[in-house]
Structure prediction request, 203 residues.
Amino acid sequence: RRMLVNVNLFHALVSSPARTAVREWRLGFEAARFDCIDCGASIAWPRRHDMCTISLLHAEVHVLPDAVALSRAAADEFLRAAQTAIEKHARFTVALSGGSTPKAIFGLLAADDAVGRDKLPWDKVQIFFGDERHVPPDHPDSNYRMANEALLSRVPIPPANVHRVRAELDAARSAAEYENELRSTFGSRAGEIPRFDLIMLGM
Prediction:
């Protein structure tokens, strides 16, 4: 598991006393020294302008110096995960998130495709959404609208490969329909959890 985070956000998170879970996580960080995978240096605490990779028991935390570097690293991780999944099982399933950071990442992916950098076989990519606002797809707050404008309309992905939440419907009906679509696409039975190749989560 990889977590990519802007170093300023990293400091804000681990310094926050707002939530018990975050506070316990912060204390765990403060109590240990970390070995940077990239350079091998042992550090007590990532400084504001450090870029490093911290290895934890079940994850790697990549701390990036700013939002630009974070977006580029996340776009590269998207491409790496897609290429690996397609080589292994001929398709790539990804759940997108909303927000300003994913929008920048989507823009980079579209720009990469336009200039031929690491072009993906988009017919093998299946797009889902990890969350959605209860608004129509053309609403300014729609995560689908943002993803469509920033990425999906700018790459040759078949419309059938884009699985949006029909949030213009009643919430219960929309959720039930999306559950059925997930089961159909992944071939999962009741009680089984779909396994995505990549899930994008905002913070």
In short: The longest strand covers residues 2-6. The radius of gyration is 19 Å. Residues 9-33, 44-49 have pLDDT under 50 and may be disordered.
